[in-house]
# Entry
Amino acid sequence: MIDRIVKKYIESLDLLPEGARVVVALSGGADSVALMDILHRLDYYCIGAHVNFHLRGEESDRDAAFSHQFCMDLGVPFYKIDLYAAEYAEQEGISVEMAARDLRYNWFEQLRKEQSAVAVAVAHHRDDSVETVLLNLIRGTGIRGLTGIKPRNGNVVRPLLCCGREDVLGYIEKRGLTFVTDRSNLLNEYRRNKIRLEVLPLLESIQPSVRDSIARTMDHLGETEILYEQAIDEAKSRLCKDSKSGSSEFPLKISLSALELEKAPQSVLYELLSEYGFGRADVQSVWKNRWGTSGRVYFSHTHRLIFDRDSILVSELPAQEITEYPLEETQTSISEPVNLRCRFVKSGKDYKISISKSMAYLDADKLLFPLTIRHPKKGDNFIPFGMHGRKLISDYCIDRKMNAIEKEELWLLCSGKDIVWVIGERIDNRFRVDEMTKRVYHLSVDHS
# Structure
């Protein structure tokens, strides 16, 4: 029986330690029933987990009741949750299928932590993996999309990938197990169902062993993917030497001139950018416009890409922040939004002023407290130290060769409506210390 095959598969890939606690995703269908029964017979401590999405009326409630009874018959713990995928899908602007997947796996992981389980086991088998490859071919995919479903993805494991659907049904029959059928799986309304019910049978009429053939191809491409990933990692080390490791400023900085020298530059660019949510159409546009106007910006759901002369810069989308941060006269330090030390000192002949950009020396009697710290706004201007005419902050940034991201990350110290210090850059000439100054307000950026 396939339980021995599954045992060897788990051991060969080190999917689960012997006798481990495992949350088993249990829908009540044949695949999940077989998975629960096999793992239970292999002496794993199984915990049944069922999600009722209430998408199929009484049938959804029937599945939940069946799953509960099945776990009771096996003598394993059972947990159920009611989630509403349709509402979540509308709220997030995604498909119901995607919403159900997100909600399901989020709860599985939460339950895994609560139960101190080592993994969440789901019942995908080889035929599911074959269907996934065909779907990815239809959509258009890279090499990763042709390697099928992975046996492990984080804390999620798939012990049945070594078996086909017929193997699972054969096990169910020999064990005398019952299961419920989701009637939506029998309808041709969904692309995966059309693959399963129409495309694969048609391919089998041409080549009866087509499922095995596709599975072998997935295995071959899986090995190829290892080499491919290695080549991408090597390319990244060549192209992204200036990226700040672990920095939220620029998690990715790509040299365009170096990119041009790669043997497959567009493929390399796609692999680098897809990690940050950019799709193939985005990457094609980026590649097409790579030598366009500096400052051009692209957005994914989580990140922003900007052209900066010979570089492509990627940064996280800025979070919504407090508009202004107050700095009271009595404060000696602040930590948000920047680390600053501040103090008042008396002016005098022995008082020395540093030329460091991380320090500001201001005439305290010209300041109106509380001061405020904020990001630049359109039209902001100041009189840079040593000058007499006003200069837009945007023009100052251009002169300093700052890109759009660096400009947005600037903080301004303001007194009333006046900018007194572009923090870490330059003070306003009107607030400088001069021979008439009696008290100095000294600020320094704390880099510790």
